[in-house]
Each structure stands twice: as C-alpha cells, then as structure tokens.
Fold 3-dehydroquinate synthase.
Amino acid sequence: MKVIQVRHAGGEYPVYVGQGLLGMTSILDRHLEGRVLVVSDQNVAKHYLDRLRPTLSRIQHKRKIILPAGEEYKTVASWQRILDELVELKAQRDATILALGGGVVGDMAGFAAASYMRGIRVIQMPTTLLAQVDAAVGGKTGVNHPQGKNLIGAFHQPAAVIADLDTLQTLDERDYRAGLAEVVKYGAIRDPGFFAWLDARADALAARVPDALVEAVYQSVRNKAEVVAADEKEAGQRALLNFGHTFGHALETFTAYQRYRHGEAVAIGMVLAARLSEFLGRCPTGTSDRLERLLQRLGLDTRLPADADPDRLLNLMRLDKKNRADQIRLILLDDIGQASVTPCPADDIREVLVK
Ligand SMILES: NC(=O)c1ccc[n+]([C@@H]2O[C@H](COP(=O)([O-])OP(=O)(O)OC[C@H]3O[C@@H](n4cnc5c(N)ncnc54)[C@H](O)[C@@H]3O)[C@@H](O)[C@H]2O)c1
C-alpha cells in the first residue's frame, strides 16, 4: 500500500492506494467517527458493500443509502435523499459519510457532507479509475442542475481517501479506458518521467495488471495532490488539469452527451490540443504523435468522428468558461510534461478541427 498526504488550506488528509483496502478494518477504524452513513449506488453496492461489513459491524449507529447508478441521478433530489438519511440517523456534527462508488456518488455524498450541519466528515472510497485519480481528490463536490453540469456545489475536503485497486477489475471496459485518459493527462501536462513510464507499461495497464495499476494511480494522485495543494480554489495552475477538456466538452455537447464517456472525449481533445501546439510552433514536432500513440495503445480513440462539424465545434468552444474577451483560452503543450494556458485565435483552432 502507498500513502500520499494531500495538503490544503485547512490541513491535510491521506490517500491510501493499494489492493484489498476495503476489507482492511485498521484503515477505516483510524478515520471513522460518530454515526456513519454509507452512500453507494446499485452497481457498486452489489459488488463491494459486503467488504465493509467487518468494519461496519462494530458501529452501533449506522445507515446506508443505495442510489440508482448514473449521471442522470446526480441531482438535487438525490442529494436531498442523502440529507434525509442523515436526519433519520440523527447524525450530529461528528458523523461520517462513507462514499463508496464512482465520481457521481463521491460528488453527491461529498456535497451532502459539505452542507449537512455546515459540514461533516466524508471518507471517499472511489471505485472507478476516474474517481481514484481525479474526482475523489481535491475537494470539489456537487450535483447537476437541469441547466448545467455541476452547477450546484461546494469545496469540501475529505477526511481520507481509500482507493482499493481491486475494485477496478469489475469496471466496464469503456469506463476503465476513459479513466486512463485522465492518467495520461497528468504525464502530458506536468510529469515527463511518468509519461515515459506509461509508454513503457501501456500494455500492462490496458490489461489491468495490478502492480501497473498501483503505480499509475499513485503517480496520478501525487500529481493531482501537488496541483491542488498549490491552487486549491482554481486560481492558477489547477486550470492545467483542463488539458484537452475544451475540445472534449465541445465534442460531448456536439454529440449530446450520448456517444462518448467524458474521458474518451478528453483523449480526442488532448490530441487536438497537442496538434494545435505543434501547429503554432510551441512544442517539438512529433509531440502529438507520441501522445496519440500512447492513447491508442491504451485502447482510446484519438480522432474526431467523421460527422464532426468544425464550425459547430468552434462555436461550442467559444462558450467555455475559461474564455476572456472573446479569445478562446486553451491548455497547450510546450513539450511532453509541460503545459500552459494560452489564448488562441479561432482560425488556428479551426485548422486542427478540419484536418
Ligand atoms: N469532483 C471532481 O473533482 C470531479 C472530477 C472529475 C469528474 N467528476 C465527476 O465524476 C463523475 C463521473 O465519474 P465516474 O466516471 O466514476 O462515473 P460513475 O460514478 O457514474 O461510474 C460509472 C459507472 O460505473 C459503475 N461503477 C462504479 N464503480 C464500479 C466498479 N468498481 N465496478 C463496476 N461498476 C462500477 C457505476 O455504477 C456507474 O454505472 C461526473 O459526474 C463528473 O462530474 C468530479
């Protein structure tokens, strides 16, 4: 097992990364306090709720809520249901929420923890690759509003994060690959050594070999922890984590959120951003090919679909919230392992969208 300490303005918390962690009572015991509410979804509970039994059996006052799975349930109504359970449990300020699931469960349970009695403890137990390397670390919590994703939320840091890599073995192939795109992102924007390691172990990673998974999740969390420690509220370097996301969001919107997982769209977006970086002469020739080859070996699509309409994509990119004064601000690569926020002229962006 590996442990990363994440520092933030109000203190620090550990992220445990390893195998067999859900069943390890010693870890949970260290962080549990007061009455306990377990929040999970139907898919995850079916596989993993039992593994918490040894720990939970020793706790007198506890409840659980199993929500339907999926982004469409990341709503104010689900958040309200979690709050109702906390009231039923007669939870006090010292209560703990255990969030067992992917990013959807983590974001909702985290937001309930942020808002109930102005803040109680949450322990994140992420079960998707995306949640382990991204969503569970950093303290962003929230739910969707019909008018926008993550429109309602709060910053609320967890008391601990327990990333049990065994859970990744039951993850759907597409969800797994989508998580790998975010793993590659850390190497591409700030860690050339990690990128080289990913290149060397791509086949093991695609096959979910446990020791490769430990290293990939550990290095990703370490990178995310360094970024959020330096910029907790997204004033500066945290923006680099959006590499590939402006193109990716436009593609997700263009395909009405029906065709791509978020990470799949980000993979295509990262390659487009790298191509643009090269086109503008910002990074060495061959950088985007290196990135594309790695993503392909991990099983990800890297090209825009044949029906993609460059002008519509460009218009969607203009709506991105990072933009200032009508320029489209993108994260571009200066090299593998180095990125910066750059305002880009629409005509240049169009060049890479039409190719
Ligand atoms: N808070 C943040 O900083 C942050 C960062 C990135 C993404 N997010 C959010 O995360 C969400 C996406 O997270 P996600 O990709 O984990 O989606 P998810 O939570 O919907 O999980 C994907 C699917 O996998 C299932 N699942 C989860 N773990 C499983 C396992 N171990 N085995 C089998 N099935 C399993 C889930 O039930 C679900 O059907 C989005 O809502 C996004 O906004 C938040």
Observations:
- The radius of gyration is 20 Å.
- The first strand starts at residue 2 and ends at 8.
- The pocket of nicotinamide-adenine-dinucleotide is lined by residues 41, 43-44, 47, 69-71, 74, 101-105, 107, 127-128, 130-131, 134-135, 138, 140, 150, 167, 170-171, 175 (CB under 6 Å).
